[in-house]
Amino acid sequence: MAEFLTDIETLRSRARKEIEKGPVTDAYGADLQRVIQVLNEALATEIVCTLRYKRHYFTATGLYSEPVAAEFLEHAQEEQAHADKLAQRIVQLGGEPDFDPDTLTKRSHAEYDASLGLIDMIKEDLVAERVAIASYTEIAQWLGNGDPTTRRVFEELLAQEEEHADDLRGLLERIPQEKSGL
């Protein structure tokens, strides 16, 4: 049977040799710079989603707006937590989180939306969630075993984005579609 574990002395020597790399060791199997770039694109996506949900929260009006606005606010807070988690991972990997407002929408996978009708807001938020779901699924698959920690971060975000999409679909099913401006 072939030995597959590195001996303890070699592990210790390697750990001391490049101590400034923090958690990134020789065992890291992904393209570090590309992972940081992908994380920054996801960070931009989460920031844009936070801003979109906040706008929808503040501008939602109509008969059904109160429970829908509450959902928008909850999603905005969760998207902000996603952004924070991504920024933290970028720093752990030795990168710099990119919060540059001049390029956020260019780097974001999802679009910003300024719809005024409640149904349009919900639909645009659902589209953005579906974009995030597709994107984060691809990213988790791409990372594979090369960076299992970052893959798990995306899997956690993915689960919550799926929950958001389900919430929004439920809202669309409960609100009469024929009324404009709701």
From TrEMBL:
Swiss-Prot/TrEMBL cofactor(s): heme b
Pfam families the UniProt entry points to: Ferritin
InterPro entries to which the protein is assigned, alphabetical: Dps-like (IPR014490), Ferritin-like (IPR012347), Ferritin-like_diiron (IPR009040), Ferritin-like_SF (IPR009078), Ferritin_DPS_dom (IPR008331)
Keywords carried by this UniProt record: Iron, Iron storage
Domain Ferritin-like diiron: 29-179
Name of the protein: Bacterioferritin
